[in-house]
Design brief:
By secondary structure, the protein is of the alpha+beta class. It is about 40% helix and about 20% strand. It has helices at about 20-35, 50-55, 60-65, 85-95, 95-100, 140-155, 175-185, 195-200, 210-220, 225-230, 230-250, 290-295, 310-320, 340-355, 365-375, 385-390, 410-420, 425; strands at about 40, 45, 65-70, 75-80, 105-110, 125-135, 160-165, 255, 265-275, 280-290, 305-310, 330-335, 360, 380-385, 395-400, 405-410. An 8-stranded mixed β-sheet has the order 1-5-6-11-10-9-7-8, with helices on both faces. It has a 5-stranded mixed β-sheet with strand order 13-12-14-15-16, sandwiched between helices. Strands 2-4-3 form a 3-stranded antiparallel β-sheet. The chain binds histidyl-adenosine monophosphate (HAM). Histidyl-adenosine monophosphate binds near residues 122, 127 and 307.
């Protein structure tokens, strides 16, 4: 029988990579707590209609990338391709609009898009996201950007750039889309086949097409600039946001071609980019979505948020990872024989009580095997228990760095391990 494999565009996450995921998750939780955002967990699948209406019928996500299926009851369901529409659905469904109209929420978890997989682009990928619902002020847009910036900074990511644009509102966006359509209709022959298709369906998306012929069209001097179409209120909103970002010391560039792949954006749209991941250069993106609640059947509720791709952050962290971070703390328990296994299992309960992490290998192998394994795992301290030690009621402790070994009573061993293995590293076991 042939060997089974993970589905294309998905992967197992394990081994040395896991501590990077934990680091990101812990940073997200602690920054969320500092800013007063509460966690929300929505279902992995939702009704297909939620994304069709929320993300937009004309978007690539809805047209081409959704994992949609009928359940046994004939309902059309979709694995969530993003988190904002589900969060707004929860907000409306739970009656927050009436009882607690202003909320600040964050989430973490897998998302699904049927895309062509490549480094940093997966079919199952993970995002963390922050959403502030009920706030009109541009200061809230700035807070969302500050949260993103704080997390990237906290993780030690360098050389990131923040690109910002304003997509206008219900008053000024339609005028711009009309101008765009007129501009592109005259030049439709020069557009790639994908963009020809987008021309009527979603002309804004042509703005971030990477195909060279489309890029040439976009560079034309007659190209209508979104910034020129903004109404007074949108201009004011953008000016205030940029002023606040400057006061916060967050550097940005205005990119009038930044449009994002989801239809719900109004006014602020932004992306955080890196120069180190090739084509998949966005490590996060977001913006304001003041029309989303109405698209989902609710009253008008303003909102702003962002989400970041965790796979891409892991790739960046891996580039900077040092050897030492893969070392494990704690102690390797090496039993020589069945009796040794039993005694060491009893010892492990005592270690637990003292918060000392351990790893016991029940392979029933030689000392040579155990020492090699401990070395491979990066564990410095090895407790060896063979027949001789059992007879003398002692444990042999080997320091893999100096090569020294000493015989210790249980009490002596505990004392030594407590001294050597720092308390901070152990607290999670207590
Ligand atoms: P998005 O730009 O579609 O926005 O995704 C946010 C981030 O998720 C991207 O910048 C990227 O880092 C990551 N990402 C997206 N697709 C993939 C993929 N196939 N593989 C790996 N990473 C990926 C949203 O999803 C919005 N919900 C963000 C938002 C929240 N806007 C307002 N609130």
């Amino acid at each position: 029988m042939s060997q089974l494999k993970v589905p294309k565009g998905t992967r197992d996450i394990l081994g040395r990579e896991i501590h990077l995921w934990r680091r990101i998750e812990e940073t997200v939780y602690s920054v969320a707590q500092l800013f007063g955002y509460q966690e929300i967990r929505t279902p992995i699948f939702e009704s297909t209609e939620l994304f069709a209406r929320g993300v937009g019928e004309g978007t690539d996500i809805v047209q081409k990338e959704m994992y949609t299926f009928l359940d046994k009851g004939g309902r059309s369901l979709t694995l969530r391709p993003e988190g904002t529409a589900p969060v707004m659905r929860a907000y409306l469904e739970q009656g927050f609009a009436v009882h607690e109209p202003r909320v600040k929420w964050f989430y973490l978890g897998p998302m699904f898009r049927y895309e062509r997989p490549q480094a940093g682009r997966m079919r199952q990928f993970h995002q963390f996201g922050f959403e502030a619902i009920g706030f009109e002020s541009p200061a809230c847009d700035a807070e969302i950007i500050l949260i993103a910036w704080t997390i990237y900074e906290e993780l030690g990511l360098k050389r990131l750039s923040l690109e910002i644009n304003s997509l206008g509102c219900n008053h000024c966006k339609p005028g711009y889309i009309e101008a765009l359509k007129n501009f592109f209709r005259d030049r439709s022959e020069e557009l790639c086949s994908n963009c020809k298709d987008r021309l009527e369906r979603n002309p804004l998306r042509i703005l971030d097409c990477k195909v060279e012929t489309c890029q040439t069209v976009l560079r034309s001097t007659a190209f209508p600039n979104l910034q020129d179409f903004l109404c007074e209120d949108c201009k004011k909103h953008q000016a205030e946001l940029l002023q606040t970002l400057t006061a916060l010391g967050i550097p940005f560039v205005i990119n009038p071609h930044l449009v994002r792949g989801l239809d719900y954006y109004t006014r602020t749209a932004f992306e955080v980019k890196t120069g180190e991941l090739g084509a998949q250069d966005a490590v996060g993106g977001g913006g304001r979505y003041d029309n989303l609640s109405q698209a989902l059947g609710g009253q008008r509720v303003p909102g702003v948020g962002f989400a970041a791709g965790m796979e891409r952050i892991v790739l960046l962290l891996q580039k900077e990872e040092t050897e030492t971070s893969s070392e494990r703390s704690g102690v390797y328990l090496a039993p020589l024989g069945k009796e040794g296994e039993r005694y060491l299992l009893v010892l492990s309960r005592v270690l637990l009580q003292h918060g000392i992490p351990f790893y016991t290998d029940f392979a029933d192998k030689t000392l040579k095997y155990h020492l090699k394994r401990a070395q491979k795992m990066g564990i410095r301290w090895v407790v060896i228990l063979g027949e001789e030690e059992i007879q003398k009621s002692v444990f042999l402790l080997k320091d893999m760095i100096s090569g020294e070994q000493i015989s210790l009573s249980q009490e002596g061993l505990l004392k030594k391990l407590q001294e050597e293995i720092s308390g901070a590293e152990n607290t999670y076991l207590r």
